[in-house]
Amino acid sequence: MNAEVERKYKHWRKRNYLCSKKWKAAKIDWLVITESPPFPRNRKEWKNPRYVYCLRKGRKGGLLLSAVARAFFGARIMNWSGEKRLKRLRQRGVFVLDVCQNPVDQLSDGERSRAWSDALSRSFFVRIRRMHPKHIVVVGMGPNGEFSRIVTDSLARKFGGRVVNMDPIPFPLYGSYERCWRGIRRCVDHIHQ
Hints:
By secondary structure, the chain is mainly alpha-helical. The protein has eight helices and three strands; from the N terminus they run αβαααβααβαα.
Protein backbone atom coordinates (compact mmCIF):
# COMPACT_ATOMS: atom_id res chain seq x y z
CA MET A 1 0.00 0.00 0.00
CA ASN A 2 1.47 3.34 -0.94
CA ALA A 3 1.96 6.17 1.57
CA GLU A 4 -0.78 8.41 0.13
CA VAL A 5 -3.43 5.66 0.38
CA GLU A 6 -2.31 4.78 3.93
CA ARG A 7 -2.58 8.47 4.90
CA LYS A 8 -6.14 8.60 3.52
CA TYR A 9 -7.03 5.40 5.40
CA LYS A 10 -5.66 6.89 8.61
CA HIS A 11 -7.86 9.96 8.10
CA TRP A 12 -10.89 7.73 7.38
CA ARG A 13 -10.33 5.58 10.46
CA LYS A 14 -10.17 8.66 12.68
CA ARG A 15 -13.33 10.10 11.13
CA ASN A 16 -15.14 6.77 11.42
CA TYR A 17 -14.11 6.46 15.07
CA LEU A 18 -15.49 9.91 15.88
CA CYS A 19 -18.75 9.27 13.98
CA SER A 20 -19.29 5.82 15.51
CA LYS A 21 -18.62 7.18 19.00
CA LYS A 22 -21.50 9.63 18.49
CA TRP A 23 -23.95 6.85 17.54
CA LYS A 24 -22.82 4.17 19.99
CA ALA A 25 -25.48 3.22 22.53
CA ALA A 26 -24.62 3.34 26.22
CA LYS A 27 -25.83 -0.28 26.51
CA ILE A 28 -25.37 -2.53 23.47
CA ASP A 29 -27.96 -5.27 23.05
CA TRP A 30 -27.13 -6.19 19.45
CA LEU A 31 -23.62 -6.04 17.97
CA VAL A 32 -23.61 -6.48 14.18
CA ILE A 33 -20.12 -7.41 12.97
CA THR A 34 -19.20 -6.89 9.31
CA GLU A 35 -16.10 -7.39 7.19
CA SER A 36 -14.90 -3.88 6.35
CA PRO A 37 -16.01 -0.61 4.77
CA PRO A 38 -16.27 -0.84 0.97
CA PHE A 39 -13.43 0.34 -1.25
CA PRO A 40 -14.05 3.77 -2.87
CA ARG A 41 -15.60 3.50 -6.32
CA ASN A 42 -14.53 6.92 -7.57
CA ARG A 43 -12.47 10.03 -6.77
CA LYS A 44 -15.33 11.65 -4.85
CA GLU A 45 -15.52 8.71 -2.42
CA TRP A 46 -11.82 9.06 -1.59
CA LYS A 47 -12.78 12.33 0.09
CA ASN A 48 -15.95 11.03 1.74
CA PRO A 49 -15.70 7.30 2.55
CA ARG A 50 -18.70 4.99 2.93
CA TYR A 51 -18.50 4.03 6.58
CA VAL A 52 -21.80 3.09 8.24
CA TYR A 53 -21.69 5.96 10.71
CA CYS A 54 -20.32 8.68 8.39
CA LEU A 55 -23.49 9.93 6.71
CA ARG A 56 -23.33 12.08 3.64
CA LYS A 57 -25.45 15.21 3.79
CA GLY A 58 -29.00 14.55 2.61
CA ARG A 59 -28.48 10.79 2.28
CA LYS A 60 -30.24 7.93 4.01
CA GLY A 61 -27.04 5.97 4.63
CA GLY A 62 -25.68 2.92 2.86
CA LEU A 63 -27.19 -0.47 2.14
CA LEU A 64 -25.90 -2.00 5.36
CA LEU A 65 -27.45 0.72 7.53
CA SER A 66 -30.71 0.30 5.64
CA ALA A 67 -30.69 -3.51 5.98
CA VAL A 68 -29.93 -3.43 9.71
CA ALA A 69 -32.58 -0.76 10.36
CA ARG A 70 -35.15 -2.66 8.30
CA ALA A 71 -34.46 -5.87 10.23
CA PHE A 72 -35.26 -4.11 13.50
CA PHE A 73 -38.00 -1.66 12.46
CA GLY A 74 -39.61 -3.04 9.29
CA ALA A 75 -40.40 -1.31 5.99
CA ARG A 76 -41.35 2.00 7.60
CA ILE A 77 -37.63 2.92 7.72
CA MET A 78 -37.60 3.49 3.97
CA ASN A 79 -38.86 7.05 4.48
CA TRP A 80 -36.55 7.82 7.39
CA SER A 81 -33.43 9.95 7.02
CA GLY A 82 -30.07 8.35 7.75
CA GLU A 83 -29.83 10.30 11.00
CA LYS A 84 -33.23 9.07 12.18
CA ARG A 85 -32.21 5.47 11.36
CA LEU A 86 -29.05 5.88 13.44
CA LYS A 87 -30.96 7.48 16.35
CA ARG A 88 -33.48 4.64 16.43
CA LEU A 89 -30.76 1.98 16.22
CA ARG A 90 -28.90 3.67 19.09
CA GLN A 91 -32.11 3.73 21.16
CA ARG A 92 -32.62 0.01 20.40
CA GLY A 93 -29.02 -0.75 21.47
CA VAL A 94 -27.75 -1.79 18.02
CA PHE A 95 -24.14 -1.11 17.03
CA VAL A 96 -22.25 -2.04 13.83
CA LEU A 97 -18.55 -2.89 14.02
CA ASP A 98 -16.12 -3.63 11.16
CA VAL A 99 -13.55 -6.38 11.67
CA CYS A 100 -11.08 -4.75 9.28
CA GLN A 101 -10.74 -0.98 9.40
CA ASN A 102 -9.44 -0.69 5.84
CA PRO A 103 -11.41 -1.90 2.79
CA VAL A 104 -10.58 -5.48 1.81
CA ASP A 105 -13.04 -6.10 -1.02
CA GLN A 106 -10.43 -5.34 -3.73
CA LEU A 107 -7.81 -7.73 -2.28
CA SER A 108 -7.06 -11.24 -3.53
CA ASP A 109 -8.61 -14.09 -1.52
CA GLY A 110 -5.29 -14.82 0.22
CA GLU A 111 -4.63 -11.17 1.14
CA ARG A 112 -8.22 -10.84 2.33
CA SER A 113 -7.89 -13.89 4.61
CA ARG A 114 -4.63 -12.51 6.03
CA ALA A 115 -6.34 -9.17 6.71
CA TRP A 116 -9.10 -11.00 8.65
CA SER A 117 -6.56 -13.01 10.64
CA ASP A 118 -4.60 -9.86 11.51
CA ALA A 119 -7.78 -8.03 12.51
CA LEU A 120 -9.04 -10.89 14.70
CA SER A 121 -6.35 -10.20 17.24
CA ARG A 122 -6.73 -10.15 20.98
CA SER A 123 -7.51 -6.40 20.93
CA PHE A 124 -10.57 -6.98 18.71
CA PHE A 125 -12.05 -9.41 21.23
CA VAL A 126 -11.18 -7.09 24.11
CA ARG A 127 -13.14 -4.31 22.34
CA ILE A 128 -16.16 -6.57 22.04
CA ARG A 129 -15.89 -7.73 25.64
CA ARG A 130 -15.85 -4.09 26.81
CA MET A 131 -19.08 -3.43 24.91
CA HIS A 132 -20.88 -6.26 26.77
CA PRO A 133 -23.26 -7.08 23.90
CA LYS A 134 -26.16 -9.40 24.70
CA HIS A 135 -26.31 -10.73 21.14
CA ILE A 136 -23.83 -10.82 18.24
CA VAL A 137 -24.73 -11.18 14.54
CA VAL A 138 -22.10 -11.61 11.79
CA VAL A 139 -22.92 -10.14 8.36
CA GLY A 140 -20.77 -10.71 5.28
CA MET A 141 -19.73 -13.91 3.62
CA GLY A 142 -16.48 -13.12 1.82
CA PRO A 143 -15.27 -15.58 -0.83
CA ASN A 144 -17.14 -18.90 -0.41
CA GLY A 145 -18.62 -17.84 2.94
CA GLU A 146 -15.14 -17.94 4.48
CA PHE A 147 -15.39 -14.62 6.37
CA SER A 148 -18.59 -15.58 8.10
CA ARG A 149 -17.23 -19.02 9.05
CA ILE A 150 -13.90 -17.73 10.40
CA VAL A 151 -15.38 -14.84 12.37
CA THR A 152 -18.41 -16.75 13.66
CA ASP A 153 -16.21 -19.65 14.85
CA SER A 154 -13.76 -17.26 16.56
CA LEU A 155 -16.57 -15.36 18.27
CA ALA A 156 -18.38 -18.55 19.30
CA ARG A 157 -15.21 -19.78 21.04
CA LYS A 158 -14.87 -16.50 22.94
CA PHE A 159 -18.50 -15.51 23.54
CA GLY A 160 -20.46 -18.76 23.29
CA GLY A 161 -24.24 -18.36 23.15
CA ARG A 162 -24.16 -14.64 22.43
CA VAL A 163 -23.39 -15.37 18.75
CA VAL A 164 -26.88 -15.73 17.29
CA ASN A 165 -26.25 -16.77 13.69
CA MET A 166 -24.13 -19.77 12.82
CA ASP A 167 -25.28 -19.61 9.18
CA PRO A 168 -23.82 -16.89 6.95
CA ILE A 169 -25.80 -13.70 6.34
CA PRO A 170 -24.63 -12.03 3.12
CA PHE A 171 -23.55 -8.41 2.94
CA PRO A 172 -26.36 -6.46 1.20
CA LEU A 173 -24.69 -6.17 -2.21
CA TYR A 174 -25.29 -7.78 -5.61
CA GLY A 175 -28.97 -8.44 -5.03
CA SER A 176 -28.50 -9.78 -1.47
CA TYR A 177 -30.23 -6.89 0.30
CA GLU A 178 -33.37 -8.87 1.05
CA ARG A 179 -31.45 -11.97 2.18
CA CYS A 180 -29.38 -9.76 4.49
CA TRP A 181 -32.17 -7.98 6.33
CA ARG A 182 -34.29 -11.13 6.50
CA GLY A 183 -31.32 -13.03 7.96
CA ILE A 184 -30.83 -10.42 10.68
CA ARG A 185 -34.59 -10.37 11.30
CA ARG A 186 -34.60 -14.16 11.78
CA CYS A 187 -31.89 -13.74 14.44
CA VAL A 188 -33.94 -11.07 16.23
CA ASP A 189 -37.11 -13.18 16.05
CA HIS A 190 -35.24 -16.24 17.31
CA ILE A 191 -34.13 -14.38 20.44
CA HIS A 192 -37.58 -12.87 21.11
CA GLN A 193 -39.51 -16.16 20.85
